[in-house]
Amino acid sequence: FFRTVHGWLPIVSKRYFHEYLISFPAACQPEIVLLLCCMKLLTTSADGESFEPRSSLYLATRRLSNELEDMGNFSLQALQARVLLAYYELGYAIYPAAYLATGYCAKYGIALGLHSTSFQAEPTFSLDEIEQRRRTWWAILVLERFIRLGYPDHVLLTPEPSIWDNLPTDDDVWDNQVIITSTVRLTATDVFKKPGRFAILAQGAYLLGCVIRNVSRSEVVAPGSLQDDEAQQLRRTLSALLRLSDVATGAQNYDFCAQKSLCYRYSPAFISP
């Protein structure tokens, strides 16, 4: 999982996982079992025409998830598991489960308070857990905005990020088990100096939300209107983010840039590839 999926969806802390989650008695907790099942799902090979996404493991994982909800289990690990499960369902086009799971994750995250920055001042949370909560919320934002592309009438359940929200920290720093003491704001220019993979993806999701809002305001945008001015600015910003992705791909040896798909997804209206 940490060699493959974690590269493009880094929401589970490697240090926290190895030091606590898989140790006794934590590994016996039902939410940890669910998280491990979802990790296994995402790392299951899809080779061969006989592969069935709705496998016995998938069905068992879904049942366990429902049982945890019936038990009243309410934790960050359970939400992380549901996020991983939603990405699995999206990747294999398991509908309507993928669509419904997106709304579930959004409501679950809001109930946990992940949409608010107030949890960052909570003394009971370690810096590592704060970063996990931030990354999990950004993963939900990315998921819902991507799902929104296929459902134009879908109303976003997650609020738009504030300009004061923090981006995920650099992935290499986090993976190397360095304690994070500094953060980068969503609109800060520092993100362009040494961007992390997930931070760029988060910015791509934020800009996609801006595009969706701009497009939904009016089907016909009059030249010189506020919507047209915003569209021009979004076009320039998206182009800059794509150039940043190209630079990061070469300079930091990134094998893929998932944020490009978010930027180009609205290319007919905003970008000329």
From TrEMBL:
Primary subcellular site in the record, as a coarse category: nucleus
Subcellular location per the Swiss-Prot or TrEMBL entry: Nucleus
GO biological process: DNA-templated transcription
A cellular-component GO term for this protein: nucleus
Keyword Transport: no
Top-level taxon of origin: Eukaryota
Domain Xylanolytic transcriptional activator regulatory, first and last residues per copy: 1-178
CDD domains the UniProt entry points to: fungal_TF_MHR
Keywords, sorted A to Z: Metal-binding, Nucleus, Transcription, Transcription regulation
Record flagged with keyword Transferase: no
InterPro entries in UniProt: TF_fung, XnlR_reg_dom
Single GO MF descriptor: DNA binding
Name of the featured protein: Xylanolytic transcriptional activator regulatory domain-containing protein
Organism: Trichoderma harzianum CBS 226.95
